[in-house]
Write a structure and sequence with these properties.
- The complex is a heterodimer of chains A (about 110) and B (about 190).
- Chain A is mainly α and about 110 residues long.
- Chain A is built from 4 helices and no strands.
- Chain A is elongated, with a radius of gyration of 16 Å.
- The termini of chain A are far apart.
- With about 190 residues, chain B is mostly helical.
- Chain B has one domain: Vanadium-containing Chloroperoxidase, domain 2 (Orthogonal Bundle).
- Chain B contains 9 helices and no strands.
- Classes of the chains: A mainly alpha (about 110), B mainly alpha (about 190).
C-alpha cells in the first residue's frame, strides 16, 4: 500500500469517527433541546439532562482521545466536514424522531 | 509589528504542556467548528421561524466568507509563519495561504450571524468567544500571524453583515431551504 493509500484510509477512518461522534453528540444535544420541544423527547424528563450531557461530553472526549494523532495531520476539512456534519445531524434528527414516536406512541 | 506579536504569542508555545494541549484543543479543525455549528442546531430546534431563518443566513454567510477568502487568495498568497521563521509548530503544515485565515473567516461568519439575531443571547456570545479563542489558538500553535486572524474575522463579519443586509432579497432562497428542511423532517 502506497503512502497516498495510507493517508486516504486514515482520513476515511477519521471521517467515520467524526460522523459517529457527531451523530451521538447530536442525539444528546437534541434531548437537551427536547426539554422545550416535546416532539423530540424519547427519554423520561428526569433523565433528559444527565443523558444528554453524557452523550455530548462522551462523544467529544471519545472522538478527541481516540483520534488524537489523526486530528493533527491533514484530513477531512472544509466542505467535507460540512457534509459529514450535515449528514450526521440529519441521521441524529431522524433517529430522534423515530425514537420519540416509538416511546410516545407506547406511552399513549 | 505583525511578526513581533506572533513571536510574543508563539514564543510561549512549547513551555507548558497543559497550555499547549489547551490551545491544540481549540486550534484543530474539528472541535470549535463543530461546537459553533451545534449552536446553530440548538437555535434551529429551539427557536421559532426567525431563528431558523438566521441559521440559513449563517450558512450563506459561511459560503460568502469562503468565496471572499478564495478570491483574496487569488490576489495574494501569504506564506505561513513556519516557512519563513523559526517557530514552535504544534500543528500540521497547512499549504493554503496564511492570509486571511480561512477558519477565522468561517467561524466569525457563523458566530456573527448568530450574535446579530439576538445580541443578548448567550449562544451568540459563546460562539463569538469560541471563534476568538480558535483564532488565538491558531497563532499559539504557529500556523497563523495575528493579521491573518484579524483579516479572517473581518471577512466573516463582513460576510454575515452583508447577508443580513440583503436578507429581504434572499427570502425566496431562505424559504425554499426551510421548506426543503420541513419536507425532509429536519425542522
Amino acid at each position: 500500500m502506497g503512502n497516498e493509500s495510507v493517508v486516504l484510509w486514515l482520513s476515511a477512518e477519521l471521517a467515520l469517527g467524526y460522523f459517529i461522534a457527531v451523530t451521538v453528540g447530536m442525539l444528546g444535544l437534541l434531548q437537551g433541546v427536547a426539554v422545550q420541544r416535546d416532539d423530540l423527547r424519547w427519554l423520561p424528563t428526569a433523565w433528559q439532562w444527565p443523558v444528554a450531557s453524557l452523550l455530548v461530553v462522551g462523544a467529544v472526549v471519545v472522538f478527541y482521545v481516540r483520534f488524537y494523532a489523526l486530528i493533527f495531520v491533514p484530513g477531512p476539512a472544509g466542505l467535507e466536514l460540512i457534509l459529514l456534519f450535515g449528514g450526521a445531524t440529519a441521521v441524529a434528527v431522524w433517529l430522534t424522531r423515530l425514537l420519540a414516536a416509538l416511546v410516545q406512541g407506547r406511552g399513549r | 509589528m505583525d511578526y513581533g506579536l506572533f513571536e510574543a504569542i508563539n514564543g510561549l508555545a512549547g513551555r507548558w504542556t497543559v497550555a499547549d494541549e489547551f490551545f491544540r484543543f481549540f486550534a484543530n479543525d474539528y472541535i470549535v467548528p463543530t461546537a459553533i455549528v451545534a449552536m446553530l442546531v440548538i437555535d434551529w430546534f429551539r427557536g421559532a421561524l426567525r431563528a431558523r431563518r438566521v441559521v440559513v443566513h449563517a450558512i450563506l454567510a459561511l459560503l460568502v466568507a469562503n468565496l471572499i477568502v478564495k478570491l483574496s487568495n487569488l490576489l495574494w498568497y501569504r506564506l505561513r509563519p513556519f516557512t519563513l521563521h523559526d517557530v514552535t509548530l504544534l500543528f500540521y503544515y497547512p499549504s493554503d495561504s496564511s492570509f486571511p485565515s480561512n477558519s477565522a473567516a468561517a467561524m466569525w461568519a457563523m458566530a456573527w450571524a448568530l450574535w446579530l439575531r439576538d445580541r443578548r443571547s448567550p449562544l451568540g456570545r459563546m460562539a463569538l468567544l469560541l471563534a476568538a479563542l480558535m483564532g488565538f489558538s491558531r497563532i499559539w500553535v504557529g500556523v497563523h500571524y495575528p493579521a491573518d486572524i484579524v483579516g479572517g474575522a473581518l471577512v466573516g463579519i463582513i460576510a454575515a453583515t452583508l447577508v443580513e443586509r440583503v436578507r429581504q432579497r434572499l427570502r425566496p432562497l431562505t424559504y425554499g431551504l426551510l421548506w426543503l428542511a420541513q419536507r425532509l423532517r429536519l425542522a
